[in-house]
Automatic annotation (TrEMBL):
Residues 13-73 form the HTH tetR-type domain. It comes from the Bacteria. Keywords: DNA-binding, Transcription, Transcription regulation. InterPro entries: Homeodomain-like_sf (IPR009057), HTH-type_TetR-like_transc_reg (IPR050109), HTH_TetR (IPR001647). Signal peptide: none annotated. The keyword Transcription regulation applies. Pfam families: TetR_N. This is TetR/AcrR family transcriptional regulator. It comes from Streptantibioticus parmotrematis. Residues 190-212 are annotated as: Disordered. Residues 36-55 bind DNA.
Length: 212
């Protein structure tokens, strides 16, 4: 069982959330380009150095759950039950992320992102990073036989499925359609001659792909 966070961790989390909420409010009120880091720090009543201890860039303020989303995706691989199939586990997590990002209050934030080139570029790089982290978790899982290239391909499909569903009029239908294709691609990767010949790979440290 995971121990509950201590007082220091709770205080850090509260400060981080306060900074992110303040930044988003200012961006929505004034426009992203009209608000500087010092404006956010002053409004949140924290030092600029404190802000940067929580967020590496101005763009990151808009994507404050970036790291948590990445962890959830990789845990869908690493924490699934011994005999739980991979694709349904990923589908379940992607559904949860889509629900989070398509709530009634999410519209203004996505409009801000869509109209701001810097935020669009950051989101694209974030998606690629999430795909690479997911692929690394898949490659490191000794229970899975597909090659590292196949794992990277499927991981990108999964991240794209999230993005497509998030923007769709019917997210559930979009996930149904995309994950049927992902399942078929994964089954093809598992049954490829190279994967069959390789068999289960030796486990590697989490987050580092197996070589060979």
């Amino acid at each position: 069982m995971t121990a509950p966070p201590g007082r220091r961790e709770r205080k850090k989390a509260a400060t981080r959330q306060k900074i992110a909420d303040t930044a988003l409010r200012l961006f929505l009120e004034r426009g992203y380009d009209a608000v500087g880091i010092r404006d956010v720090a002053a409004e949140a009543d924290v030092a600029v150095t404190t802000l940067f201890s929580h967020f590496a860039s101005k763009e990151a303020l808009v994507f404050e759950q970036d790291d948590e989303f990445e962890r959830r995706l990789t845990r869908a691989v690493t924490d699934r039950a011994a005999h739980e199939p991979l694709v349904p586990a990923l589908r379940h997590e992607v559904e949860a992320l889509v629900r989070h990002c398509t709530g009634d209050d999410a519209g203004p934030t996505w409009h801000l992102i869509d109209e701001t080139p810097a935020l669009r570029a950051y989101e694209e790089s974030m998606r690629l990073r999430h795909a690479e982290s997911l692929a690394a978790a898949m490659t490191a899982d000794a229970r899975l036989t597909p090659t590292p290239t196949a794992c990277r391909t499927i991981a990108r499909f999964v991240i794209d499925a999230y993005s497509l569903a998030r923007d769709a009029d019917d997210p559930d239908a979009a996930l149904d359609e995309t994950f049927r294709m992902i399942e078929a691609a994964w089954e093809a990767a598992r049954s490829s001659p190279r994967a069959a010949a390789a068999g289960p790979r030796p486990a590697t440290p989490r987050g580092r792909p197996a070589r060979g």
